[in-house]
Every structure is written in C-alpha cells, then in structure tokens.
C-alpha cells in the first residue's frame, strides 16, 4: 500500500450504510477503509450521528483535537438546525442526510483527495511551485510580468532553478523579450511525449543568461494543435520535479490546456487593468473558475497593471466590482517596459533602479522562500581578522 493512500475510519450504526460507504470508497482510487481495530491516524472519519448527539460530538471533538482523525464527514437522519450548528462548530467538513446520495459523497471524497494531494505536494521540498500568469485581456502585460517574475526568482539566493513556459500558441513572445534563439519548443516534446525524461527535456530547454530555463511555444499549429491537456499537464508536472519554480505565461486564452494548467498551479496571477472591459473580463474569469470549482479562491491573485493613483476607477470600486481583494498593483511605466522589450532584456537588466523594477522584485519576494539573514558587517570584519 502506498504511503499516499488516504486512510478512512468509518463509525456508523447501520451495517447496510457501512457496506454502501465501503463500496463508494472502493470506487475511488487511493483510498483505504481502516478495520475497526486499526489505531493509526486517519485522514477522514465518516461518522453517523444517533440520538446521543451531545456525547457523540464530544467524542468527535476529542478525536480531532488529538489528531487521531484529520477531517470529519457526518451522516445523520436528523438535519435540524441545532444539530447542523453543532456540526459546523465541531469542524465537520460535510454533512449528509439519510438516505445517502451516492454522488454527493463521491464528490466530497474526491475533493478531499485533491486537497490532501495538494497539501502533500506543498510539504514536499522536491516539488517546485507552479505560478501561472494569465491575462484577462490581451496586451495588458502578462508576458512582462511572467518574464520578470521568472528572472527575479532566478536571482534569489534561495532559489536554485527556474523554468519559464510559454503557453501562447503561435504568438509566444518570450524569445523576443529575452533575445534568445531557441532551437526547440514544447511542440517537440508533445510529438515525442513517450521519450520525456530529464535529459530529453534539458536538451529542449534554452538557458537564458539569468539562469532561467525557457520552453517556448510552437510558432505554428503544425502537429502541436493536437496537444492534449493531459500531455501539457504531464509535461508541467514533470518540470515541477526538476525546478524550484515553473512560471507559465498563459496569455489570455481560456482553453482546455490553460484550465489544466490552472488546476495544477499553486498560484495564479490574474492580470487586469482599472478599466471597465478589463474588470468585466476579470469578473467573468473569476466566476467561471469558481463555477468549475477546481481552483481554491485563495490561489488566485488579482494584479492590477499600469496602475495610476489618479485613475477614474478606484481600487475600492474595482474590488467591489469583482468581489475580490486586489493582491498587487504595478505602476504605469510604458517607457521602461517598452525599452526592456526593445532591448530584449528583463527590467532588472535595463533599469534596476526604476520603481517598476523594484515593484516587480517585491512581488517576486511574496513567492520566493525567505532568504537567510546575512551576518552583519561587523561580524564579517571580526571573522576576517581572526
Ligand atoms: N506596467 C506597465 N506600464 C506601462 N506599460 C506596460 C506595463 N506593463 C506592460 N506594458 C506595456 O504593455 C504592452 C504589452 O505588454 P506585454 O506584451 O507584456 O502584454 P501581454 O498581455 O503579454 O500581451 P499579448 O496579449 O500580446 O501577449 C507592452 O508595450 C508593454 O510595454
Ligand atoms: Mg504576451
């Protein structure tokens, strides 16, 4: 049995109910129902409430507090508000009423599985972070942010490796922005997906002088149009094992591939401007993502680019319009961003002291691991003397 198997304890009164739950759980890969005498910690307890709810809630609370179980799903015949209130207070994640709706339970278990998988991934230092930059419109600075984020990360003391993937089919511009001439793009990998290993991948990637490894998008639809979302998901997941950070310029498309990548992302930077059309698109995107239900809301970060303090639409208006807090604003600086593009350099290479460069470096710091404190200068002097 793999260590990643989700352990489930079942405490129910009716044997028919136990059989039903066993059957549902067996239909989902990677889950295991513990025997009644198993004392190991469980990821989930499925508990059926009876008549003695006071003692039963007390029992559940003590299991949760002592971390014998991590999550609880409750089943009850009785859905009166007082019981529901108690269930919420106790921290139960789901409440099912009898007769059990199989699909509902299945869905909740699948959600739990995803959540545990994500948490495991986060706790595993070998797996890198995926940050996807996506535009709510074209031409609003998505590529500028993706590139500078990747380059800034590569310059951080605690970051060993960064990859940058261009997902803009046909119109990828990363090679132009960074003045590189890549020999290959991800179309090459998609055509030979069965050969994907680290040697093959590293041969395909182009290394920029900043240290960022770049995977451009195909410049034509030939052969790559058939790239299935699963293939791109597999490729991105593979890169995650090799790099501390995988930054993705997803452009503004919301196709199946983008959705797959969004689902895998630890953070999604949703680019917007303080303009009505852009905020309206941002709203639509947020709504669609929420309807699809595959990406927790807190992983989406709204970034307002080209921010002017005297804008007609205030940040507060925008937040009210999109029903979400704005995570970051990037100042308007057409001259510096254009000069960086025209010179094929990141902002830190063209204008290290500019406000926009510092702003993007500060944005990068919110994702980079904290740097170790350098010894103070006097300490360095003393240690050099001895
Ligand atoms: N903070 C900013 N202030 C002013 N201009 C900016 C800013 N960020 C980007 N720009 C300008 O916006 C234009 C588009 O930038 P960029 O190519 O990064 O956007 P994009 O969303 O990737 O566009 P596309 O949809 O073509 O891929 C460029 O001319 C760039 O100079
Ligand atoms: Mg772009």
Can you walk through the features of this model?
The chain is α/β, with parallel strands linked by helices. It folds into two domains: 6-122, Rossmann fold, CATH 3.40.50; 126-365, Rossmann fold. 44% of the residues lie in helices and 18% in strands. It contains 16 helices and 13 strands. The protein has helices at residues 15-26, 53-65, 81-90, 102-123, 142-154, 174-177, 186-191, 198-204, 229-242, 256-264, 276-292, 315-322, 334-343, 347-350, 355-365, 377-385; strands at residues 6-11, 31-33, 42-48, 69-76, 94-97, 129-135, 162-166, 206-207, 213-215, 245-249, 267-272, 300-307, 326-331. The strands form two sheets. The protein has an eight-stranded mixed sheet with strand order 8-9-7-10-6-11-12-13, sandwiched between helices. It has a five-stranded parallel sheet with strand order 2-1-3-4-5, sandwiched between helices. A hairpin with a 5-residue loop joins strand 8 (206-207) and strand 9. Helix 2 runs parallel beside helix 3 (81-90), helix 5 packs across helix 15 and helix 9 packs parallel to helix 10. The radius of gyration is 25 Å and the shape is elongated. The protein starts with 5 loop residues before the first strand and ends with a helix. Mean pLDDT is 90; it is low at 374-386. Adenosine-5'-triphosphate binds next to helix 5, strand 12 and helix 13. Magnesium ion binds at residues 142-143, 168, 173, 251.
């Amino acid at each position: 049995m793999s260590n990643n198997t989700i352990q489930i304890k079942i405490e129910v009164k009716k044997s028919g109910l136990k059989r039903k739950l066993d059957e549902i759980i067996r239909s989902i890969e990677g889950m295991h129902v513990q025997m009644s005498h198993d004392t190991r910690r469980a990821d989930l307890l499925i508990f059926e409430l009876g008549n003695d709810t006071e003692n039963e809630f007390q029992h559940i609370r003590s299991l949760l507090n002592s971390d014998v179980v991590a999550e609880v799903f409750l089943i009850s015949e009785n859905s009166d508000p007082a019981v529901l209130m108690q269930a919420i207070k106790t921290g139960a994640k789901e409440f099912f009423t009898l007769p059990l709706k199989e699909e509902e339970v299945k869905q909740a278990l699948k959600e739990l599985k995803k959540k545990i998988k994500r948490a495991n991934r986060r706790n595993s230092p070998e797996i890198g972070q995926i940050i996807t930059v996506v535009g709510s419109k074209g031409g609003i600075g998505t590529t500028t942010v993706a590139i500078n984020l990747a380059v800034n990360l590569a310059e951080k003391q605690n970051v060993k490796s960064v990859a940058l993937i261009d997902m803009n089919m046909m119109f990828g511009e990363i090679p132009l922005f960074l003045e590189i001439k890549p020999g290959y793009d991800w179309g090459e990998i998609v055509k030979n997906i069965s050969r994907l290993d680290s040697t093959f991948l590293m041969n395909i990637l182009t290394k920029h002088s900043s240290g960022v490894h770049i995977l451009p998008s195909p410049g034509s639809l030939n052969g790559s149009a058939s790239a299935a979302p699963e293939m791109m998901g597999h490729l991105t997941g593979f890169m995650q094992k090799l790099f501390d950070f995988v930054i993705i310029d997803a452009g503004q498309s919301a196709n199946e591939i983008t959705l797959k990548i969004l689902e895998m992302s630890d953070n999604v930077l949703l680019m917007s401007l303080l303009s009505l059309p852009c905020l309206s698109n941002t709203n639509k995107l947020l709504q669609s993502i929420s309807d699809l239900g595959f990406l927790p809301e807190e992983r989406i970060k709204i970034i307002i680019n080209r921010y002017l303090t005297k804008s007609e639409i205030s940040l507060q208006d925008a937040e009210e319009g999109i029903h979400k807090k704005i995570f970051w604003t990037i100042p308007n600086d057409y001259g510096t961003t254009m000069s960086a593009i025209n010179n094929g350099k990141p902002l830190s290479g063209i204008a290290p002291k500019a406000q926009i460069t510092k702003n993007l470096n500060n944005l990068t710091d919110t994702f980079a691991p904290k740097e170790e404190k350098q010894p103070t200068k006097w300490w360095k002097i003393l240690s050099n003397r001895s």
